[in-house]
Amino acid sequence: MSENGALPRRGKVLTVDTMNVNVKKVDYAVRGPIVQRAVQIEKELKEGVKKPFEEVIKANIGDAHAMGQQPITFFRQVMALCTYPLLLDDNKFPEDAKNRARRILQSCGGNSIGAYTTSQGIDCVRHDVANYIQRRDVGILSDPDNIYLTTGASDGIVTILKLLTAGEGRTRTGVMISIPQYPLYSASIAELGAVQVNYYLNEEKCWSLDISELQRSLQAAREHCNPSVLCIINPGNPTGQVQSRQCIEDVIQFAAKENLFLMADEVYQDNVYAEGCEFHSFKKVLFEMGPEYSSKVELASFHSTSKCYMGECGFRGGYMEVINMDPEVKAQLTKLVSVRLCPPAPGQALMDLVVNSPQPGEPSHQTFMKERTDILSALAEKAKLTEQILNTVPGISCNPVQGAMYSFPRITLPERAINEAKAKGQAPDMFYCMKLLEETGICLVPGSGFGQREGTYHFRMTILPPTDKLMILLNKLKEFHQKFTQQYS
Amino acid sequence: MSENGALPRRGKVLTVDTMNVNVKKVDYAVRGPIVQRAVQIEKELKEGVKKPFEEVIKANIGDAHAMGQQPITFFRQVMALCTYPLLLDDNKFPEDAKNRARRILQSCGGNSIGAYTTSQGIDCVRHDVANYIQRRDVGILSDPDNIYLTTGASDGIVTILKLLTAGEGRTRTGVMISIPQYPLYSASIAELGAVQVNYYLNEEKCWSLDISELQRSLQAAREHCNPSVLCIINPGNPTGQVQSRQCIEDVIQFAAKENLFLMADEVYQDNVYAEGCEFHSFKKVLFEMGPEYSSKVELASFHSTSKCYMGECGFRGGYMEVINMDPEVKAQLTKLVSVRLCPPAPGQALMDLVVNSPQPGEPSHQTFMKERTDILSALAEKAKLTEQILNTVPGISCNPVQGAMYSFPRITLPERAINEAKAKGQAPDMFYCMKLLEETGICLVPGSGFGQREGTYHFRMTILPPTDKLMILLNKLKEFHQKFTQQYS
Ligand SMILES: Cc1ncc(COP(=O)(O)O)c(C=O)c1O
Ligand SMILES: Cc1ncc(COP(=O)(O)O)c(C=O)c1O
Questions:
Q1: Which reaction(s) does the protein catalyse, per the Swiss-Prot or TrEMBL entry (chains A, B) (predicted)?
Q2: What is the value of ipTM here, to two decimals?
């Protein structure tokens, strides 16, 4: 500062030197340099630039519709009816779709999906969510007052992390996240200035979660911060594992013992493919462990319209359920979400359809079930295919894709490639993925974007491309990996 | 902390004592206690509880559809087509609506509005926004790269404030906001831990903005923080004023001289009613002031689908244009918005329609123009009506509602009422509004929720109710005010 207390005049007010330092620390690999280069290459291809491939195949992001998956007819019918209610007189639309639309509109201000909703979300939608959870977690109650609708799961996750972030220095909130992780977590933790606390998933045991590793991580974190939050993604992104009931029980026990707030990211709850695997919600397991746990452990769980069989990412629908949250904190949460007025009403309506889909006997039931089953079976098939083909490549080893939408294979990189990457200041798997993109048009995300054990290298690949494209992708990848290994050996 | 460095075990992890202190400081009046009580009363009425009125009339929030305003037909037609593209074969829909829908879908991944969009927003929408701005600000270029689509204007405003918040203690970012203000500003400033710097609008001069007051406020703030941002709402919420071109020029000059980043909240740009008033965008005035200013002053301006004639709040559409933003900061901004993936695609599509509405010669043009004009003329009439009737009440004085959707009249409260309120720990105008609600069912927001000069009292009332309801409201209010004054005199 200058003599009189005024700041010195600069060319610009807002520069990288004056801006929010936490924002600068944010990293977001899923939409990072690889994806930016892919977009550029697509433009170049359009402009007629010659490349050794004809199209970019994007397997970098869990965006089903972008990969050609068709929306669920019933969902879109109801959404069209909500948007343009004159269609309620059109006999092209089935009665069950009309009933859903009428019910949603009656719950909207002025019967319009264009009105602000209450900040916590449309009443009838929150009731339907609670009913869905009760059906899913047979025998366990759910209270609509504990449901908050959100702008995608992302919004809910950031909001809960925001509530939890407090303290300074050694008392600053530490947030335990799995490594590899979905980078929303590290990004939000950085933005909020919380402390990221890593625990490693066990690649050797199919990316499972070891309590001893949680214990190690917690112990280490207590030396320098206040670790009070434990985040779990199940089924896992980027790792595709599905946790066993026993593991979930152990995690809950651990959280209870160590006084941790649990965040369960369950956006892939319908995406379970492997035999012997099943989705168990944290809520259900918690309540089945008896009142000692169910009356005590604080839990927020998250769901979304973006994944599962519907893949409606663009609508930004989602919900969270909060369990055992202090009522005063809940009031603060309600206040906080009211500042941005409300989540998008169409996303709320879509969330309603997901939790209140056509029932047996309703006119749309058969078509709905067929569409849903077809999508989920195709994903199961592609999960298997991906694992099998990748494992035929020397230098690539891939755990079973038990659930979610991703494989996260480990790749062996020649020493010379690692050195060349380091010389360029690049993570070795970034170097690998960038070369893959330039030579084949395949767009993946390097493992370094998600975190991995020091000295190991991975990439994340979605299983979403249509089977024929996926086959092309996997074969090109195989060929590339062999060439790359040769070239750098 | 206990001996071994571990924190003492508590009943709950997350309590009001352990939570984020900035969140606790957030205040949000528009959805505060009055509104919560109004919702309660509505429930009581439904349950048959006897009240001195039959319905709650909500004039607390700028939510046009909730007050019965009908959506623009063309907008909803295109949205239905985007949602359920099978309707593109339906001859009930006009060709221009179909063309718009096709164009938007072609810009979406997999031609689906259910795909994630790029984080900055759909390409063609950003181009259309830039074209709109160029038409609006005749002769001044707009670059689609400077356009970011947002989840309502709220999201854009919070994002820019987040970028700008830095420093500690005396170097902490100060954000200058008008008093009275739209409480999103004070709430976000509190949440981010920035410093709120108040400048007062001049009620005596129709809520205009005096540069000398800006100067005073800035000077005072420099004693304790680093005021580097100046926020303007034009047309004003809650005050309904429309700034003159001269005033905007003076503000820009001030910002240039004092090195302030300008944030222009222009969500009410089509809501100008008073004769002699006109909307001037900050961007246009900035560029008309010549390169000395236009190459230098940093500006972010905000627009929304929620206001104007469309009132599509539920879709959460919006955009911001950033001018003279440091390219490195822009890269940071793009990274930051990518963490939450993208704004809702339906909101983006709707924003596109607002900036690319039916043109002369297109089949929907006439209907569109009629609907638009009818809505805006009705608002203009209600603005006048509100001012006139309120000014007939002794003890209420109301500035002209030149624009936006609100009147913010000053009320004289008897000493005895003020004392009774204070004894209850309530702001006197909160006391007044709560009594009004209980006795008449009218739901307004007390001036204290927006800020006002010490010792003055106001309420904010929207002009959105249909004319007949507005008349009832105004007459009941008149009667109540007289009774209240008598009772406490
Ligand atoms: C594990 C996980 N959580 C949350 C999200 C956020 O999804 P959305 O915000 O679209 O609901 C994703 C998206 O890929 C995810 O993979
Ligand atoms: C001045 C002002 N800015 C911003 C907003 C936010 O609107 P939205 O987020 O719905 O676009 C409002 C809403 O009332 C407003 O009055």
A1: L-alanine + 2-oxoglutarate = pyruvate + L-glutamate
A2: 0.93
